[in-house]
């Protein structure tokens, strides 16, 4: 089966409903080397790149200059929890910070090129000398990119498969990326298979693994006292998600996992998605409905004998035409189609 490639699109604007600010992210994922924030990461990760790709990365470094306006914005969610999200450019996934009597704990740590800015923001929240834990929701570069630096002093916790993938060479053909093994400091030192509890700052953080969904490494983290859930990339709020079919992800299983989230957590749970603004259960149900409806649409076309090209060209039901902020409709249909083959 041919690998799915992400279709090139223009930069999207994502309105953060939580604070009224406008955020920008990337949707030109097929041409990822030209994005000003991803380009330096590509240069670091494509150690096995072809000469042609290496030339593209060199050009991307030139494009990357002048990206200083890209920033990380902090939004206080309650007395101990702070959301760190990107403004004016792609910084990686949503970061959640717990700061209190036991010190500081961070969930996900963006892309490598944002590490200095991430540390700058963390230093405003608490004492970096008291950063105790980094929790990864999964292995992708936009969620574990700061591990190498933060892991020099903090203990990294993640699913067993996250350590396996970070410790070995990985390929993301959809992004035209080859990622070398991560340094020792970037690797989780505490891993789990199904679930794990971390007692920190007066909360029980309940980590739960959801297999073969966005990837084969996914974990969500629930703050029991705050009634707040960080879903990682099991949830892209208001947009089609990237599903890493090449590395253990599957749209059908993702749909089941999202249904489990809805069934498992209280109706009034506040939700931090992997990408997009802070959400609630209504938003998560809308995401689940989108997964169900668009998958059924592709299944019907496949059963009718449509080719992949025809399925991609057919688009999505009208109600979801505006969901192509990161992944466009044609690419989303191809990810669903690839999942049906697994």
Please summarize what this structure is:
By secondary structure, this protein is of the alpha/beta class. It contains ten helices and 16 strands.
Task: State the main characteristics.
5-stranded mixed sheet; Metallo-beta-lactamase, Chain A; globular; 342 residues; alpha/beta
Could you explain how this protein is built, in words?
The chain has 342 residues and is α/β, with parallel strands linked by helices. The chain has one domain: Ribonuclease Z/Hydroxyacylglutathione hydrolase-like (Metallo-beta-lactamase, Chain A). Helix content is 30%, strand content 25%. The protein has ten helices and 16 strands. The longest helix is centred in the C-terminal third of the chain and has 23 residues. It is globular.
How are the strands of the biggest sheet laid out side by side?
A: 3-4-5-6-7-8-11
Count of separate structural domains? 1
Kindly provide the name of the CATH class: Alpha Beta
CATH homologous superfamily, by name? Answer: Ribonuclease Z/Hydroxyacylglutathione hydrolase-like
**Which descriptor suits the 3D outline?**
globular
β-strand number: 16
Span between termini: 10 Å
Quickly give the CATH architecture.
4-Layer Sandwich
How much strand? Answer: 15-25%
In round numbers, the mean pLDDT is: 85
Rg (C-alpha, Å): 19 Å
Largest sheet: 7 strands, mixed
CATH topology tier name: Metallo-beta-lactamase, Chain A
Helix proportion: 25-40%
Sequence stretches where pLDDT stays below 50 over 5 or more residues: 7-67
Q: Figure out the total of helices.
A: 10
What is the N-to-C order of secondary-structure elements (H for helix, E for strand)? EEHHEEEEHEHHEHEEEEEEEHEHHH
Helix and strand composition category: alpha/beta
């Amino acid at each position: 089966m041919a690998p799915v490639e992400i279709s090139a699109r223009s930069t999207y604007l994502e309105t953060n409903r939580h604070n009224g600010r406008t955020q920008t992210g990337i949707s030109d994922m097929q041409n990822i080397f030209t994005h000003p924030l991803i380009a330096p990461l590509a240069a670091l990760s494509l150690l096995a790149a072809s000469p042609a790709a290496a030339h593209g990365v060199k050009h991307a470094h030139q494009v990357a200059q002048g990206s200083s306006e890209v920033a990380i914005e902090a939004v206080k969610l309650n007395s101990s929890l702070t959301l760190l999200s990107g403004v004016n450019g792609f910084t990686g996934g949503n970061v959640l910070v717990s700061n209190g009597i036991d010190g500081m704990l961070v969930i996900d740590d963006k892309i490598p090129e944002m590490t200095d800015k991430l540390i700058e923001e963390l230093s405003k929240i608490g004492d970096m000398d008291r950063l105790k834990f980094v929790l990864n929701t999964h292995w992708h570069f936009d969620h574990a990119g700061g591990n190498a630096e933060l892991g020099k002093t903090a203990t990294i916790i993640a699913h067993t498969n996250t350590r396996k993938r970070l410790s070995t060479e990985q390929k993301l053909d959809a992004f035209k990326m080859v990622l070398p093994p991560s340094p020792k400091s970037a690797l989780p030192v505490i891993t789990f298979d199904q679930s794990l509890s971390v007692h920190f700052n007066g909360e029980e953080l309940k980590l739960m693994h959801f297999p073969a969904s966005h990837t084969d490494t996914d974990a969500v983290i629930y703050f029991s006292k705050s009634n707040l859930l960080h879903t990682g990339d099991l949830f892209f709020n208001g947009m089609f998600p990237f599903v890493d079919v090449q590395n253990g992800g599957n749209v059908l299983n993702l749909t089941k996992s999202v249904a489990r989230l809805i069934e498992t957590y209280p109706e009034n749970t506040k939700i931090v998605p992997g990408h997009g603004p802070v959400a609630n259960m209504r938003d998560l149900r809308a995401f689940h409905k989108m997964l169900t409806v668009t998958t059924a649409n592709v299944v019907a076309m496949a059963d009718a004998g449509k080719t992949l090209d025809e399925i991609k060209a057919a688009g999505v039901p009208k109600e979801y035409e505006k969901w192509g902020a990161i992944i466009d409709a044609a690419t989303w249909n191809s990810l669903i189609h690839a999942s049906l083959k697994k």
